[in-house]
């Protein structure tokens, strides 16, 4: 692995930093964040920043220039993201659309699709979501039940999706549905672009135990979609979905939140047995474990960056990183709350120790272990692609879907 920028990469980093200095405020420390605001305020701020990036040439750096990108390299995109993380700028609203949905449109869409949808997304005018998961399917995406039936030049969709991030504020989405139940389940799927404001689309936010509502249930009742909104051929939905899922692994990656530095700082202040918690050997041992995990995650990410820098396709490193980081987020948060004693149950940011960062991390980490691939699915990826273990026996892969129990 080569951890240093090439001269060309160093020049690009300096260019990105200079532009960011002119257009954004640098963080005073790595954990500084934007102040709390309403959803409407956050959306408006995110739209303005996305358009600013597009006008400055730093939105969708790897995309072709004719679609609003810069025709740049993957490592340039990584470099810009690294530099942007040092500034107080909004994020999150466009990650799914620009990181997963629109790359799928670019790979499988017609020229009409690209001309209509790509540029408005790059400039922040439209936000997208991904509609894959279903209540009865769990992690088995191909086991979905939402169906689409052909009606002239249209398709009529009925069914339900769940855990759809951002559906309550999105303009468009990509949805995979079953169009042929007489063939094996992976072969009877088709992907469509859907207008989230279409008649018959109902979005119901899911109230999370954190108090937030980032995920949604989405119901389709006789939703009419023109055949021109299809991505790929009928029955190619699984192939199209794999394009989305490959981009999702890279987009979701490793988690954030408080880490060992914040825990160590708190350990110096918190008391345990009439002394600082850091004086306790068990506390230091746990802290050392998380420090080692953090370093392992850092160098695993470096492997991905090195592959990108060489123009290679990254391997399953993102799956490894997410398995480790998601569990670490929860474990570290729970341990910190124990050290806080009775104050550990307080979630009010104004009065809780450390602004309730550990409490919210512990609660939010549960969703992170589902989003972008559950722990179980990612372990299968690592087992099969890294360790070379045999796949599970799947008798349902060859049977027609309508004959499955």
What is shown here, in short?
With 405 residues, this protein is α+β, with helices and mostly antiparallel strands. The protein has helices at 7-23, 39-56, 74-84, 95-108, 111-122, 237-252, 260-269, 281-309, 317-339, 357-368, 375-385, and strands spanning 128-131, 147-151, 154-161, 172-178, 189-195, 201-205, 216-226, 230-231, 271-272, 275-276. The longest helix is centred in the C-terminal third of the chain and has 29 residues, at 281-309.
The CATH class label of the largest domain is Mainly Alpha
Widest sheet, order of strands: 1-4-5-8
Q: Based on Cα principal axes, name the global outline.
A: globular
Strand residue content? 5-15%
Number of helices: 11
CATH topology of the largest domain: Butyryl-CoA Dehydrogenase, subunit A, domain 3
Unreliable spans are none
Number of strands: 10
Please trace the helix and strand order, writing H or E for each element: HHHHHEEEEEEEEHHEEHHHH
**Biggest beta sheet attributes:** 4 strands, mixed
Based on secondary structure, the structural category is: alpha+beta
- The helix content is 40-55%
CATH architecture of the largest domain: Up-down Bundle
